[in-house]
Amino acid sequence: MAKITYITHEQKSYCIEVQNGLSVMEGAVQNDIPGIDADCGGGMACATCHVYVNDEWFDKLPAKEDGEEDMLDMAFEPKKNSRLSCQIIVSDELDGLTVNIPSKQS
Amino acid sequence: MNKTDALIIGAGPTGLFTAHQLKLIGLNCEIVDNLDKIGGQCIELYPDKPIYDIPAIPECTGEELTNNLMNQLKPFNIKFHLSERVEELKKENENWIVKTNNGTIFSTPNVIIAGGVGSFEPRKFPIKECEKFENISVFYSIKDKKMFEGKTVTIFGGGDSALDWAVELSKNSKINLIHRRDDFRGAQATVDKVKQLAKEGKINLFTKFQMTGIKGENELESIDIKSDDKEVKTLKTDYALGFFGLIMQLGPIANWGLNIDKKTVEVDTEKFETNQKGIYAVGDICSYPGKLKLILSGFHEGALAARACFKLARPNEKYRFEFTTSSKTIKDRLGVKK
């Protein structure tokens, strides 16, 4: 279990307890957090669960797998700290993680 | 006017198998899809990725699955309307009248929405002002490359479309190629070619740059790009092309008076009918308690929706359940001589 904070583009903050093993994307979708579309359902095929991870956390997360960076090319306003939230799997170590949701997913 | 027993919206795996089920029980159907090819998400998002959970097929790629489904449809004559998007739907007596963006009109008692997560549309530049130049100086696909001859063209993207067009248009145009990072995801041979053309000065390559502004009166004059290191450059250009892949949009279906929640259409689990009589939703786009977004679920949903179509398409006949292993009628439809 980890507390994940999702901050929308309008600076609205949602702090959710997400079960280990779920993705950060699933945590958002299951709790109706706006701004994470996840059109492909977690298949790393659509780049609509794009989030920004602050620097403090970015380096602590497991590295991107092949293909995630390719998908991020297509994301809306990708930055250096962009990740696909479907690829971040929640564990106890992620307790306190904060992600920022972009203004749009497409 | 195209009259048909059922119109299927979406040529993905669910749409294709639904067509098979309709033809098997003796109904005809036509299929519309906004993509220029058959296969839906399987072909657009993951043609090369293996799928491991299709019943009785231990492993196959999105492309192989599509090809197999098309092979299964071989005995039947099914009309596909590709690169067409359904726009309007209205009720006329017992039938639905459906219009596409190309002006094709269908009249049918049954409309089956097998639309996945919606129709594929190009992803656009994040800069709002780009809209004003769209289809004048800003494009997301190329129909006639002649218009770029002798002009300056700025291409954005790092995949095959961006690279292929950069190479092709560099023959007759001045090309700027802009990508957000140093790595390209296009085919290695094309990446090498682009790098070579950049060395020869035929392509101006800007990596780790993204668009931040666009300027011009009626036509595009220049664009601003900014690097990861906050360096800003202004490039004079006649055209800007964006190749960021496709995104799925629910599109006009959202305005058809269906019960829609979180981009999915609510259906019953007997007929997979929506709140509108004669309109069904199957595959990823439908929702009901327990819905699983798997291809195999789409097959089941399509099979049941097809049976429901029979009632409205043949109101004076009674549907009889038959097995393909034993029914002579079905074997005749399949053209099997045994």
Output the CATH homologous superfamily of chain A. Answer: Beta-grasp domain
The shape of chain B is elongated
> How large is the radius of gyration of chain B?
24 Å
CATH architecture of chain A: Roll
Give the number of domains of chain B. 2
Low-pLDDT residue intervals, each spanning 5 or more residues of chain A: none
CATH topology of the largest domain in chain B: FAD/NAD(P)-binding domain
Q: What is the fold's blueprint, element by element?
A:
The complex is a heterodimer of chains A (106) and B (338).
Chain A: E1 2-7, E2 13-18, H1 24-30, E3 50-53, H2 55-58, H3 68-72, E4 82-84, E5 98-100
Parallel strand pairs in A: 1-5
Antiparallel strand pairs in A: 1-2, 3-4, 3-5
Chain B: E1 2-3, E2 6-9, H1 13-24, E3 29-33, H2 41-44, E4 50-51, E5 60-61, H3 62-72, E6 79-82, E7 86-92, E8 95-100, E9 105-108, E10 111-113, E11 119-122, E12 138-139, E13 152-156, H4 160-169, E14 174-179, H5 188-199, E15 203-207, E16 209-216, E17 220-227, E18 232-236, E19 239-242, E20 246-249, E21 260-261, E22 264-266, E23 279-281, E24 286-287, H6 295-313, H7 328-334
Parallel strand pairs in B: 1-9, 2-3, 2-10, 3-6, 10-23, 12-19, 13-14, 13-19, 14-15, 22-24
Antiparallel strand pairs in B: 4-5, 7-8, 8-9, 11-20, 16-17, 17-18, 21-22
